[in-house]
UniProtKB/TrEMBL annotation:
Cofactor requirement: Mg(2+); Mn(2+); Ca(2+)
Cellular compartments annotated: Cytoplasm
Organism: Lactobacillus nasalidis
Record PANTHER family: DNA GYRASE SUBUNIT B, MITOCHONDRIAL, DNA GYRASE/TOPOISOMERASE SUBUNIT B
Lineage: Bacteria, Bacillati, Bacillota, Bacilli, Lactobacillales
UniProt-recorded name of the protein: DNA gyrase subunit B
Cofactor stoichiometry and binding remark: Binds two Mg(2+) per subunit. The magnesium ions form salt bridges with both the protein and the DNA. Can also accept other divalent metal cations, such as Mn(2+) or Ca(2+).
Annotated signal peptide: none
Binding positions (Mg(2+) 2): D516, D518
Known EC number: 5.6.2.2
Sites annotated Interaction with DNA: K468, N471
Length: 653
């Protein structure tokens, strides 16, 4: 009876709550309100990445004009107030009345989601802005946005505020018929981009340069007016992606001088492929669809890989480099040391999600396979010496892969959290929750001892490493996995390695590099970052990798203790102190000179420590610097050091 009473009571309560949930509680967001309410749905995030996405959306509109054959140049300017202006010399956004809205077309484009010339097939045959939300989203997420259109000898202007029209479209003058295009000037909304509204010139330059490579003959310029002397960088590559491959391989020793270039068309899909082999071990494969970097690859990448593997193996057997009884080389072995760029222009691209990171069109696979295989096969036949080098490099990679497979078994464990299989030098934490677990990679046994004594045992694990680990930029896979320090690190992480790497098995969601604040410490840190970047990239992409910033000085005056990072800070701080009692300055030559309490207080205590997260946004810059600093070519490294060296007075001298 009691159960029946409870059921009745619960049913009445449910009915009462259900009555409250009615139509009045359903919120309908009109116009661009939805964009401002959930900006992450449209630009990925409201971090620096999302901020820069605004610029890409506007540039893409100019690129679409170039792909349609109407624009020849795009000018991007960051103004003194950190607003951005993008100008193209395309046809100019239409200004006549759009029938469905009864408003000027340019106003519709900037105020209505999924409005544009990219859906009916008449405005653009190929477009990167697939979803048609770019212009309106930028408008919604800006405090102000102005659009100036020049077409048919006339000049028009319309102004917006937080996505709403504040100055109707009007004709503001005349221009020569030869002057045409669109100028967009926008100010990002700091209430949306609360992290930062400051554009990074490096991120902008990298993408603009990339677009110039992908659209041969198109001229893009970048001007930063925030600098004392405004400089304009011009990006213009008649060689297109062939020049891109050469750029990616600069400073590397290559198997043949000029990159192979293939251009073709299949059922309306334009295909471009360029590749070149280096003598190194790194594989760089970049894929693009309609100028969008498809980081996760897709069908165009699959078509290229299939064709490359088939053609190289066919040639190897025909040339008797591989015997009839020999197994084919794997695609992974054939691609070792290769740098390739694949770019397709598809009239109806199907991307996985709004972020557009993977191309799903199956016909793109066929298009790339057919366009690439015939030309590459001819190249191998006409260049037998180069062809032999490519095959022999694949054979060498195969032998190294087999050796690496044996070594990799050492790093495998039945379970990522199985303590019995962890390396003996690891002082593990007691929690099994990766979300709160931190692994400190500490330089030297002495500092490792202090860290073990001073740590929080619940959340903090300590792994001391001895000296400088192997430079993986110069090493093959079998050598890497033969290195004891590297094997120990991967065993501790529980992620596996190389092809077996699985970031979801990471035992720690904070991987903290803690090295001395000196040149040797910086070198060890760079070696570790090179390892993480090349073979543990998902850890960086997830935001799991951090760099600890230990202080360089301790100043003690009576009971007052102050930690400082630089010579300049020390000088200024000493100048601010009273002469009595006399301050005592201690310079930490290494972490091992700190006792457990000092190390905890300055570098490990979550309340006081300073950690720099390794940001995936700067991946391209990092890639270039790692290649330059850690690779085989001396010349570029020497020039980089000479250009960036800072000479400071040694206080210990």
């Amino acid at each position: 009876m009691a159960d029946e009473d409870n059921k009745l009571k619960n049913a009445k309560q449910f009915e009462k709550e259900a009555d409250k949930y009615n139509a009045s509680q359903i919120q309908v967001l009109g116009g661009l309100e939805a964009v401002r309410k959930r900006p992450g749905m449209y630009i990925g995030s409201t971090s620096s990445q999302g901020l820069h996405h605004l610029v890409w959306e506007i540039i893409d509109n100019g690129i679409d004009e170039a792909l349609a054959g109407f624009a020849t140049k795009i000018e991007v300017t960051v103004n003194e107030d950190n607003s951005v202006t993008v100008q193209d010399d395309g046809r100019g956004i239409p200004v006549d009345i759009e029938k469905k809205t009864g408003r000027p077309a340019v106003e519709t484009v900037y105020t209505v989601l999924h409005a544009g010339g990219k859906f009916g097939g008449g405005g653009y045959k190929v477009s990167g802005g697939l979803h048609g939300v770019g212009a309106s989203v930028v408008n919604a997420l800006s405090t102000k946005l102005n659009v100036t259109v020049m077409r048919d000898g006339k000049k028009y202007n319309i102004a917006f505020d937080h996505g709403r029209v504040v100055e109707e479209l009007k004709e503001i003058g005349t221009v020569p018929l030869t002057e045409h295009g669109t100028i967009v000037h926008f100010w990002p909304d700091p209430n949306i981009f609360t992290e930062t509204t400051v554009f990074d010139d490096k991120i902008l330059k990298n993408r603009i340069r990339e677009l110039a490579f992908l659209n041969k003959g198109l001229k893009l310029t970048f001007t930063d007016k925030r600098k004392d002397t405004a400089e304009t960088d011009v990006y213009h590559f008649e060689g297109g992606i062939r020049e891109y491959v050469s750029f990616l391989n600069r400073g590397q020793e290559v198997l043949f001088d000029d990159p192979i270039y293939v251009e073709g068309k299949y059922e309306g899909i334009d295909v471009e492929v360029s590749l070149q082999y280096t003598t190194g071990y790194k594989t760089t494969l970049m894929t693009f669809a309609n100028n969008i970097h498809t980081y996760e690859g897709g069908m165009h990448e699959a078509g290229f890989k299939t064709a490359l593997t088939r053609v190289v193996n066919d040639y190897a057997h025909k040339a008797k480099i591989l015997k009839e009884s020999d197994d084919n080389l794997s695609g992974e072995d054939i691609r070792e040391g290769m740098t390739a760029v694949i770019s397709v222009k598809h009239p109806n691209p199907q991307f996985e999600g709004q972020t557009k990171t993977k191309l799903g069109n199956s016909d793109a696979r066929t298009a790339v396979d057919r366009a690439f295989s015939e030309t590459f096969s001819t190249f191998l036949m006409e260049n037998p010496q180069v062809a032999r080098k490519i095959v022999e490099k694949g054979q060498l990679a195969e032998r190294a892969r087999v050796a690496a497979k044996r070594a990799r078994e050492v790093t495998r464990k039945k379970s990522g959290l199985e303590i019995a299989n962890l390396p003996g030098k690891l002082a593990d934490n007691t929690s099994n929750d990766p979300n709160i677990s931190e692994l400190f990679i500490v330089e030297g046994d002495s500092a490792g001892g202090s860290a073990k004594q001073g740590r929080s045992r619940l959340t903090q694990a300590i792994l001391p490493i001895r000296g400088k680990i192997l430079n993986v930029e110069k090493a093959s896979m079998d050598r890497i996995l033969a290195n004891q320090e590297i094997r120990t690190l991967f065993t501790a992480l529980g992620t596996g390695f190389g092809a077996d790497f699985d970031v979801s098995k990471a035992r720690y969601h904070k991987l903290i590099i803690m090295t001395d604040a000196d040149v040797d410490g910086a070198h060890i840190r760079t070696l570790l970052l090179t390892l993480f970047y090349r073979y543990m990239r998902p850890m960086i992409d997830k935001g799991y990798v951090y760099i600890a910033r230990p202080p360089l000085y301790q100043v003690r005056q009576g009971k007052l203790i102050k930690y400082l990072d630089t010579d300049e800070e020390l000088h200024d701080y000493l100048g601010s102190l009273q002469p009595s009692p006399k301050p005592i300055v201690q310079r930490y030559k290494g972490l091992g000179e700190m006792d457990a309490e000092q190390l905890w207080e300055t570098t490990m205590d979550p309340e006081n420590r300073r950690l720099d997260r390794v940001d995936p946004e700067y991946a391209k810059d990092a890639d270039e610097v790692f290649e330059m600093l850690m690779g085989n070519e001396v010349g570029p490294r020497r020039k980089f050091i000479e250009d960036n060296a800072q000479y400071v007075e040694n206080l210990d001298a």
